[in-house]
Amino acid sequence: MKHSQLVAIIKRLEAMTESTDNEVQVRRFEKDGVEKCTVTFDNTTETFELTESDSKQSYQFDNIDIVAMEIYDLIQ
User: Fold this and answer.
1) Helix (H, G, I), strand (E, B) or coil at 2
2) Which of 27, 56, 68, 70 has its CA 20 to 30 A from that of 5?
3) What does pTM read for this prediction?
4) Long-range pairs for 18-24 at CB < 8 Å and ≥24 separation?
5) Contact predicate 7/39, CB 8 Å
């Protein structure tokens, strides 16, 4: 059975939220070596910001599940 990509995405996002410092956490998400988006997490506001690499569009989320689904859609 193939491992879920969604679980792997959520684990990376959770690691961002568990950081003990107050610095903004940043992660890049790629498919086949091509960056599809970057995600930042601001611990002070507890919000994620997803920026699509192609269009440079940014979206803000306060729900980890919604961010994970957006990332999953971008890398599929």
Assistant:
1) coil
2) 56
3) 0.90
4) 19/43
5) no
Q: What are the tokens at 38?
A: 């970057």
**Total number of domains constituting the chain:** 1
What sections of the chain are H helices per DSSP?
5-17, 64-75
Q: Which residue has the tokens 């930042």?
A: 40
Q: What is the CATH number of the domain that holds 33?
A: 3.30.720.20
- Which pairs with CB-CB distance under 8 Å and at least 24 residues apart come from 23-32? 29/71, 29/74, 29/75, 30/75, 31/74, 31/75, 31/76
Query: Looking at this protein, which amino acid is placed at residue 47?
Result: T
Model confidence pLDDT, tens digit, residues 26-63: 999 999 999 999 999 999 999 999 999 999 999 999 99
